Amino acid sequence: MKLRFLGIIPNTPVDESPTLWLDEETGDLLIQSYRATEEEVKACQEIGSIPGHSTDVPENETIIRLPAVMLKCIPDRRATTVTHPVRDGIAKARRSAVHLEMRDSYTPADTEFARWRAGHRYDGDPARLPDWWGTWRDVVEEATARGVVMRRARIVSEPVTEYIRYEHDITFANVAAGELVRWLPRRKAADIPLPGTDLWMFDGESVLFTYFSGAGDVVDREWRTEPEVVQLVRSAFELVWERATPHGEWVVASPRRADFR
Q1: For 180-210, what is the HEC assignment?
Q2: Which position among 21, 74, 180, 186 has the lowest Cβ density within 10 Å, counted as fewest Cβ atoms?
Q3: Which one, of 150, 155, 157, lies nearest residue 183 by Cα?
Q4: Residue 258 predicted with pLDDT over 70
Q5: In the beta sheet, which residues pair with residue 100?
Q6: In the prediction, which pLDDT does 260 show?
Q7: Sign of CA dihedral 135, 141, 144, 146
Q8: How far apart are CA 226 and CA 194, in angstroms?
Q9: Which residues in 190-226 are b (16+ Cβ under 10 Å) and which e?
């Protein structure tokens, strides 16, 4: 087990110290907090009944109350950030890691996207980035330091969505960490034989497909290593990369259209 400390409520009595840890091997959270009262447990049981499941709390489980202030310590679990299959693939990569993104919206409940929509802007300042960013930065910097070339290509519709504008605003951080990022209008990808979903490919040998719900939430991932699948992904990505525009040259001029220098 490899634990990472996430946070603790400061200035509380020594016998009251709700704390959060992250198990970096499984992604699970370990939570030390207040036991729920009998009234709270009863309320949870009354509204949480699932057909076929007992409403009683199993002996190996309990219900706890986590203070709202602790929620800010929980890492943002975005689909395109550090998921464990992705992190494991990058950790094992020897030469390359490429990421192809083809959706116009991801994870609609993303709290950071909500902040951006409310007016928060990064302005190229790492200090304004969300807490989860540090984990991804560390992964990228470690990989690139040992010689892994990381490329991210995004195929986008025009006019671009709000989510793509948000991603564009934060991409300076990907580049600063060591990723190479390019953008391609969907019109320019029309004649490219593309895989049916987003993916990662490592060393040109293994592919990790990500499957999404219609709304943009991750529902599953799948490793594929068949030569024909890998070749399809490799050729598709290289065609996209050849036609795409580097991030530093890509300009979203207005909500109605995207300009390319």
Answers
A1: EEEEEEHHHHCCCCCCCCCEEEECCCEEEEE
A2: 186
A3: 155
A4: no
A5: 153, 199
A6: 44
A7: negative
A8: 16
A9: eebebbeebbbbbeeebbbbbebeeebebeebeebee
Determine the average pLDDT of the residues in 135-163.
95
- State the pLDDT confidence band at 40, using cuts at 50, 70 and 90: confident
DSSP H helices, the chain, are 38-47, 84-92, 111-117, 133-145, 162-177, 227-243
DSSP 3-state of 139: helix
| Stretch 177-193: mean pLDDT | 97
Chain position carrying tokens 């320019």: 188
The structure's pTM equals 0.68
Q: What is the C-alpha to C-alpha distance for residues 175 and 177, in angstroms, rounded to an integer?
A: 5
